[in-house]
Each structure stands twice: as C-alpha cells, then as structure tokens.
Amino acid sequence: MYTSTIATVATFTLGAAAAPWGHFGWGGWNGWGFNGGSGECMNDAQAQQVANNFKGLISAYTNDLANAVLTTDVQDFSDSVIELIDGGCPSSSPGPAPYIALGSPTFTSLATFEAGQGGQPNITFNILNVWHNCDTVTVRWRGPMPNPGPIPPPPAVQEQVTGIIVLETSFNGWQSAQPFLIQTIYSEFNSGAWLYDLGIFTPAGCSGSARRDAVAQALPAGMGMVKRS
Ligand SMILES: *[C@@H]1O[C@H](CO)[C@@H](O)[C@H](O)[C@H]1NC(C)=O
C-alpha cells in the first residue's frame, strides 16, 4: 500500500547487488596507483561495483545482498526520503506518528535497514553517472517509474525521479568479494516528482503560468532557475 511504497523509497538509500565484477586481488593496479601494502584506494571497477550494489538493493533486493554489501553500522541520511515518509507534511504536524524531523537519519544500522526493506517492491533504478575517490562513490541515478502500483494507483504518465547519492565506504580487504562496503549514505532526489507519482501531491493551476512564474521569482539563480524577466 501507500506505506509500503514509502518504505521502498526509504530503502532507496541503500544498494548492493550481485555484482558481476568478481573480486580484485590485493596488490593490483588501480586508477590511483598500486594497491600494494597500505594502499586502500578503489579503482573504477570497484567503484562501479559499489554503485551496482546500491542499485541491486533498490531494484532486486534480498537480505543476502544487504548482508553482503553493507556494514552492520550502515547509516542513511536523506531529507528527500523523510519528505516522502511524512507525505509532504511538516514534521510538526499534529497527525498520528510517525512524523520524522528533517535532518534525522533514515536508517542507523543494517538491522533497521532490513526491517524496513523486507517485502518492499523493487523499483527500476538506472545509473547515469559514477564518480569516485579512494573511498567514496557518487552516483547519479534515475527512476523512470517510481510508483510500481497498483496501490496507490500511479498517474497515467509518471514523472521520472532523478537523484544523486554519495556512498562512503569501509575497506573490507582486497581478498573479499566486496572490498568496499557501503557505510554511510547521503541521498537526495526529486521528492516532489515522487509525491506527484504517488498521488500525494496534486498540483493546481497547471494550465496557467501565474503560479509557475511566482515560484520562479522565489528561487535562487544559483540553483539554475531562469527567472521571469
Ligand atoms: C526483488 O527482487 C529480488 C531479486 O530478484 C527478489 O528475490 C525479491 O523477491 C523481489 N522483491 C519483491 C518484493 O518482489
């Protein structure tokens, strides 16, 4: 139902999949140098593996996958997810719990992640870009159909949701099938579009320009908004 879709969204902050990359032996070359001795820098393939792991948690979730690719103390931070959990309502709303305050972690351990994710629907998750340094992977992604339905019923045409996730990892040893485990997740995305797809937010005045232009006047140019002249 509605809540289960929301929980899926919350889950969105994690990710791991049966990555086809295999494991990389210690002492191999990576993009930053030779991984011998004290070097613990991931290479491009290992960063892609981390990104694919995250994708798997969203699009093909199993507890085995979560156990394999997340640290036991994994934490997730996402005001975008909290906005969805709260149904677009301010956390000060008087309605029944749970309302979660913006800025709160959405998950604080592997156990709470699995409890939230178990049984949630899988959602198509396309990776658009992957960047990395030695221990952190940044992923730009897009979900073309964020509401798998049938409850709540999705709109005739769903708005895509695009987001950016920063995945801080913990080195797990070169001999491991997962040399870099996801430890901290910072995830933000277009929760406005997702609320639309879930039918929670129904925009008004879409056939006119007055409201759109008023909003444009309020947005900072630094966010890329082209203001009405
Ligand atoms: C999600 O995908 C995984 C892997 O294919 C599958 O085992 C799991 O049952 C799916 N979850 C749901 C809720 O369909």
TrEMBL record:
Keywords: Methyltransferase, Signal, Transferase. Residues 40-200 form the NTF2-like domain. Residues 1-18 form the signal peptide. GO terms for molecular function: methyltransferase activity. It is an enzyme of class 2 (transferase). Its EC number is 2.1.1.286. This is 25S rRNA (Adenine2142-N1)-methyltransferase. The gene is BMT2_3.
